[in-house]
Write a structure and sequence with these properties.
- Helix content is 68%, strand content 0%.
- It has one domain (6-41).
- With 47 residues, it is mainly α.
Length: 47
């Protein structure tokens, strides 16, 4: 079974989407911060 790190994959996908649709950068950043915050509170880091 392959273990794929979520954070680098997420960063790659969001980076490509930001290049395609730069005006939605704030939504991508907001979603990322919300997910990181929730996972941090649940003590499940992405790394």
């Amino acid at each position: 079974m392959m273990n794929i790190a979520i954070e680098p994959l997420l960063a790659l996908v969001l980076g490509i989407l930001i290049l395609i649709m730069p005006r939605f950068l704030n939504y991508f950043v907001a979603v990322y911060l919300i997910v990181r915050g929730i996972l941090g509170l649940m003590h499940h880091p992405l790394m």
